[in-house]
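[[Sequence with tokens]]
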Amino acid sequence: MTGEGEDDAVAPDDCEAQAAAWLLRLSEAPLGEQLRLHQDFVRWRDADIRNAEAFARMERSWAATDLDRNAPELAPLIGNARAELDHLRREDASKRARRRALFSGLGTTVAACILVLGYVYWPHGVVVEDFQTAVGETRTIQLADHSTVQIDADSHLAVELTTHARRIKLLSGRAYFQVAHDSDRPFSVESHGRSVIATGTAFAVETLPLGLHVTLVEGHVIVRAGSGGAILAKLEPGDSLATEAGTTPNLEHRSNLLAILAWRTGRLVFDDEPLAEAIGQMSRYVTTKVVVEPSAKPLRISGIFVARDLAGLITALERSDRIRIRRDLDGTIHLRRAS
């Protein structure tokens, strides 16, 4: 594993070591480093099917011990992973030094080009775009202001960019925003009477029935009741806020970013999640209808699942002594609490 796309095709034993290192690295990364690590991780995972398979095996081993890093069966894995990480950090430091030397000579020219292009593209007018993903479809787009948006499956957003403001309406679903810095044009994401306002930062927003859930990775944002309403909260990196009309905002510090943002790497992480909510998240990626009957709604679930692997989730539930499964002729799956 290089994080740079070099020498990604490796022997099976190396795949196992690198998968273990990635699992440990992602779980221990400082908040400010997690965004870059997720991007590097996806490149490594997708470079070779053996990488993806090895990481899936590591996840299962990790989940089987309830993420207890002190479990005896994980000691060899973590020891090897830490040795691999030491090697990677030395390698990363060397590469960063080479990149700094390269870009220092180009910085002035690139900055001048950006200023010219910005003037040409933004003298007047409005850019309006609409983006919608289907069930099972995810999409990454670059906006005209060079901000990047990763849109989850079954989501819908509308974009309006002007010379004075950048407005996103998240109509359904969720998305991850990497905002290009522009202090003269605030970047706002609105959903159900709530608004997240930033100028240059990275954060995720998910729609709620009467509001939104926002998680901040980098920078700073404020959350308002409406585009010009009262300030509900000021978030710092690692903060997560759920706010809906008629309820008290719920602000959580040092939230579990790996679980909240796992969808960006094609996985869903449930940590004592209500079963109905877990099934609701999985339904973004599959067309099979799953009904959680009233008796099963209070039950909770923990685990790591591939986002599109409904069969894997159902198999895990079937092995539980708390859930009973019934399948209709049309393919609908019913979940009820075991008697």
Notes: Confidence is low (pLDDT under 50) at residues 1-10, 63-71, 102-124. Residues 266-337 form a domain with the Phage tail protein beta-alpha-beta fold fold (CATH 3.55.50.30).
